[in-house]
Specification:
Pnp Oxidase, Chain A; 8 strands; six-stranded antiparallel β-sheet; two-stranded antiparallel ribbon
Length: 123
C-alpha cells in the first residue's frame, strides 16, 4: 500500500487583492469563496477592519462601480495554490455598530454581486 501525501487547503491562508480600489489586503479577515447555485454566481461577502490610516470606509465610499479583485488561497509557505479573478458590484455595505463598552477593532461587512468570475489557478 502506497502512502499518498495530503495537504489540505486551510481557511486561514488566503489573500484578497483589490486591483482598482485602495484597500490593503491585510484588512480583509474573512471572505466567502465564490459560490455557484443553479448556474449563477451568488453574492460574495467580505469582512474587513477599518484602519485609521488608509481608511477602508473612505475607499469603499469612493469606490468605482465595478470592483476588480483576486482571491488567492496560499500554501503553508505563501505560494498561490488557487486563484480567482472576480469582478463585481457592491450591493451592500454595513459600516458596523459602535459601542462604548467594546474596544475591538471596527469591522465593515460588504456584499458584492459577482458579474464575472474565473478560476485562474488550481493546483
Amino acid at each position: 500500500m502506497k502512502f499518498e501525501e495530503f495537504e489540505p487547503k486551510t481557511n486561514n491562508r488566503f489573500l484578497v487583492t483589490f486591483l482598482n480600489i485602495d484597500i490593503p489586503s491585510f484588512v480583509v479577515f474573512k471572505v466567502r469563496r465564490p459560490r455557484l447555485c443553479e448556474g449563477k454566481w451568488t453574492p460574495m461577502s467580505f469582512e474587513m477592519w477599518d484602519p485609521i490610516e488608509k481608511s477602508t470606509t473612505r475607499a469603499l465610499y469612493d469606490r468605482p462601480e465595478l470592483i476588480d479583485l483576486t482571491l488567492s488561497l496560499l500554501t503553508p509557505v505563501g505560494e498561490i495554490t488557487e486563484e480567482w479573478r472576480i469582478k463585481g458590484k457592491i450591493s451592500e455595505i454595513n459600516w458596523g455598530v459602535l459601542d462604548w463598552s467594546n474596544g475591538d477593532p471596527v469591522e465593515i461587512q460588504v456584499m458584492m454581486d459577482i458579474v464575472e468570475c474565473d478560476l485562474i489557478i488550481d493546483n
